[in-house]
Write a structure and sequence with these properties.
Elements lengths: L5 E4 L3 H13 L6 E3 L2 H10 L4 E5 L7 H11 L5 E6 L6 H6 L4 E4 L4 H46 L4 H15 L2 E10 L4 E4 L8 E4 L3 H9 L3 E3 L11 H6 L6 E7 L5 E10 L7 H44 L7 H15 L4 H13 L9 H4 L7 H8 L1 H11 L9 H6 L21 H15 L8 E2 L2 E2 L7 H10 L7 H18 L6 H11 L5
Parallel strand pairs: 1-2, 1-3, 3-4, 4-5
Antiparallel strand pairs: 6-7, 6-11, 7-8, 9-10, 10-11, 12-13
Helix pairs in contact: 1-5, 2-3, 5-6, 5-9, 6-9, 10-11, 10-16, 10-18, 18-19
Bound molecules: fe (ii) ion (2 copies).
Length: 527
């Protein structure tokens, strides 16, 4: 047992001497002794005693008043053992006042010894119990944090959001100054991170620095001062005026045992280094991080694969005719510009993007004789050409879209509807049309009018050239047909972002001579 500091408040010198001897015989330091209650009060306030043994009738200030004052006023009062002959004070008042024990006088050396040892044993047990309870509470807190973090990580599939989420949570839970999460790129033998808190993206050679060391060896590193490590790279510290001290760095392995990343935590706040408990906690967290990272990468791969399938399908349709190459891609860009202008949600924009890319997929089913016809359509040609919308719907209905994209076939198939109900294939009115279809209608017509065709364009009965229509005329058609063909709000939104749309394809699809005058007139600040 560690040495305990005592104060004895006792008017009888023989008794205080006996107590002092017993205390020292038990291996504790020599106690301070006073016969005065008021002096004891002063001593207790100015010294950190563990135990005060006070006579209830101490001169100057009786022991009970001394105890009550100290317990009331001191934030961390000592334990009080009261002694006394008197029957004036009830046991209830002594214990009720806060005393941990009462030793009735007269007391022999042996009796005092036994009673004190019993008291000290009980005190030690209580302290151990409190310490265990505290440890258990800390453990429960960490487990609860681990569950919270695990839940947060499993709900995030976008790895670009996952990185800052992991780093933020780990830094906070581990009471560290900063954290980094690196993924191992085995093919390039590099470590990369999407984001390291407060710092731009970093790619490191795999065999450098603490993270590199952990990635290569698979060993955990827990040091008080990183600068003591021969493989620590001080460049970052020197460049950023940062001082890396304590570091805890562990490998992240997947369920097959393959190392996929490294998690590094730097500078434990208020402590010289990370503890064994921190190591265990981080190891628990690392397995969850591994699962979340792999899920997010898989999700990203599926998304890329889905996107590239859609883009390829869309390009196949456009490629059937040299003059329509890039049509679906441009319609998509215009549609998204309108969507941003109209402040559509991210989800609505995603639906619109796929609808735009696939809106003309039905042209796959139109014969070359009609699709590539150089000349005015007959009624039969027109009927066949117009059927591409119905074909779009039936092709896309067979396509398996994720739940959030199930509106795509309907929106795509109605891009030739008009708000006055005179469009095709279903003659929907503005109230019946999906906003996405209304947006596609504007974007589609705009691209058709501003792109070159190998057959003349027609405006009512007027035969026009094969060249892109002058922009003034396109703008006037968009305005004229607003409310009949186009939804007025959508048409206006497109006119608002027209200069940006022209600028986007300036020098590419649009020769600068075709767009510069209009951009200059509508938005001189852009050019
Ligand atoms: Fe179309
Ligand atoms: Fe189209």
């Amino acid at each position: 047992m560690a040495s305990i500091s005592f104060l004895i408040v006792e008017g009888e010198p023989a008794v205080s001497k006996m107590m002092s001897m017993v205390i020292q015989s038990l291996g504790h330091q020599k106690p301070q002794v006073t016969s005065s209650g008021s002096e004891a009060c002063h001593l207790t306030r100015t010294n950190a005693f563990d135990i005060v043994i006070a006579d209830i009738n101490a001169p100057g200030m009786d022991g009970i008043s001394l105890m009550e004052d100290i317990i009331e006023e001191e934030p961390d009062p000592p334990d009080f053992i009261m002694t006394g002959y008197s029957t004036d004070y009830s046991y209830k008042r002594i214990i009720g006042g806060g005393a941990k024990a009462f030793i009735r006088k007269p007391v022999t050396t042996d009796e005092f010894n036994i009673k004190l040892v019993r008291f000290l044993n009980e005190k030690s047990l209580i302290e151990k119990n409190n310490s265990l309870q505290q440890e258990q509470a800390n453990l429960n807190k960490r487990l609860s944090e681990l569950i919270d973090v695990s839940h947060a990580l499993t709900s995030e599939l976008d790895y670009k959001k996952l990185f800052p989420l992991i780093i933020g949570k780990v830094t906070q839970i581990m009471s560290a100054e900063r954290s980094s999460l690196y993924v191992i790129d085995w093919s390039k033998r590099e470590l990369w991170t999407e984001v390291s808190e407060g710092v731009e993206q970093i790619r490191l050679p795999m065999d450098q620095g603490i993270c590199g060391h952990v990635a290569v060896t698979g060993e955990l590193v827990n040091v008080e001062d990183a600068w003591d490590l021969p493989y620590f790279n001080r460049t970052f510290d020197q460049k950023n005026k940062f001082r890396t001290r304590s570091v805890l760095c562990i490998p992240i392995t997947n369920k097959t045992g393959k190392k996929i990343g490294v998690l590094q935590i730097i500078n434990k706040k208020n402590y010289p280094r990370f503890t064994r408990e921190d190591e265990l906690f981080l190891k628990g967290l690392a397995s969850q991080v591994a699962i979340s990272l792999e899920n997010s990468f898989l999700h990203e791969e599926i998304k890329l694969s889905f996107d590239s399938s859609i883009t390829t399908l869309s390009a196949i349709v456009d490629a059937r005719h040299p003059f329509t190459a890039g049509h679906s891609e441009r319609v998509t860009q215009y549609a998204l510009m309108i969507a941003r202008e109209m402040k559509l949600t991210k989800k609505e924009m995603e639906i619109l993007k796929y609808s735009a890319l696939l809106h003309d997929i039905g042209k796959i089913g139109i014969r070359d004789k009609v699709l590539l016809k150089d000349g005015r359509f007959t009624d039969e040609d027109r009927e066949e050409m117009n059927s591409h919308t119905v074909k779009t719907k039936s092709i896309l209905d067979k396509f398996h879209f994720p739940n959030k994209l199930t509106e795509v076939p309907g929106i795509a198939a109605h891009h030739h509807e008009k708000v006055n109900g005179e469009g095709y294939p279903d003659g929907l009115t503005g109230d019946e049309m999906h906003l996405g279809s209304k947006i596609l209608a504007v974007a589609d017509v705009f691209d058709a009018l501003t792109s070159r065709r190998d057959y003349p364009k027609y405006d009512s009965e007027e035969i026009m050239s094969c060249e892109p229509m002058p922009l003034d005329r396109v703008i006037s058609i968009l305005k004229k047909d607003s409310g009949s063909h186009f939804d007025p709000e959508v048409a206006q939104a497109f006119l608002n972002c027209l200069p940006r749309a022209l600028l986007y394809y300036r020098g590419g699809h649009f020769p600068s001579i075709y767009v510069d005058e209009t951009i200059q007139r509508l938005a001189p600040e852009l050019i």
